[in-house]
Write a structure and sequence with these properties.
The chain has two domains: 6-137, Beta Polymerase, domain 2 (2-Layer Sandwich), CATH 3.30.460.10; 140-267, Up-down Bundle (Four Helix Bundle (Hemerythrin (Met), subunit A)). A six-stranded mixed beta sheet has the order 3-4-5-2-1-6, with helices on one face. Helix content is 52%, strand content 15%. The termini are far apart. By secondary structure, the protein is of the alpha+beta class. Strand 4 and strand 5 (96-103) form a beta hairpin.
């Protein structure tokens, strides 16, 4: 089976619209992700939220949508998570379709881009806007300060465990600890630059100077010297970011203390 193209994607989206709109319990359909603003490219998948009239009808609506999609499409993979109110489909042409569900009275935006494809209540878009405005009312400084405290409270633990793992030549364990620490740093940078860095989504949009620092924290090969260099670079990068606002970060284990421990591990 050939990989889907943009025409295939549009046809499937049109079909989903055609089967969901007539259902009496489906109030609205909202495109999220890149589909909200025209897709990034021909590889973009379909992400949407089905707004249901009530929680009581949620499971029935999920079952209905699944039955309708199975009439038209063939799937390599399907998973339904009732507690998360989520369905994930992978078509045999490799188009992924992610469908979330929720009561229309609880409509809320968790990302800045969405597009209401239909809305029988004429309320969903306004509710999404208000929820996003409320989310944004928490100032960037407040969000960054929370990230600072989270990073300061956790990252030293990852870096110390990485040092122990490197000394023991447990390189996979070391790689995991370094990755956790790097993700905390990326989260801080994403907040500072107002980028979505969940799953490294917009990391490539960071300034080149920041990307250059991050690249130095990557592990070029599985040798002990390479791991020590990565740990040193990451420790320096993390504490440089924390020390920008050391008072707000409430640094628990400082740079000097951490470096003393890392050097002690190396010298054992």
């Amino acid at each position: 089976m050939a990989v889907f193209n943009t025409t295939d994607r549009k046809n499937i989206m049109d079909y989903i619209l055609s089967v969901t709109k007539p259902n009496e319990h489906i109030i609205a359909l909202v495109a999220v992700g890149s589909g909200a603003f025209g897709y990034i490219d021909g590889l973009s998948d379909l992400d949407m939220v089905v707004a249901v009239d009530s929680d009581e009808n949620m499971e029935a609506v999920m079952k209905f949508v699944n039955s309708q999609l199975n009439k038209k499409l063939n799937f390599i993979y399907f998973k339904q998570a009732l507690q998360r109110r989520l369905q994930v489909y992978l078509c045999d042409n490799y188009l992924e379709i992610d469908i979330g569900y929720g009561a229309y009275t609880s409509a809320a935006a968790i990302r800045k881009d969405w597009k209401v494809l239909f809305d029988k209540s004429a309320t969903v878009d306004e509710m999404m806007k208000k929820s996003w405005e409320k989310r944004e009312s928490e100032t960037k400084t407040d969000r960054y300060n929370k990230k600072l405290v989270e990073c300061s409270d956790t990252v030293w633990h990852n870096l110390m465990h990485a040092a122990v793992a490197i000394k023991r030549r447990q390189y996979w364990r070391a790689a995991a600890e370094l990755e956790l620490a790097r993700n905390l740093l990326i989260g801080l940078l994403g907040c500072r630059y107002s980028l979505d860095t969940g799953r490294n989504r917009d990391v490539d949009k960071l300034p080149e100077a920041e990307l250059s620092v991050l690249k130095k924290t990557l592990i070029p090969d599985f040798t002990q010297d390479a791991f020590w260099r990565s740990l040193t670079a990451l420790t320096d990068a993390v504490y440089t970011e924390l020390e920008r606002f050391s008072e707000q970060a409430c640094i628990t284990v400082n740079r000097q203390q951490l470096n003393e421990y890392i050097n002690a591990c190396r010298d054992l």
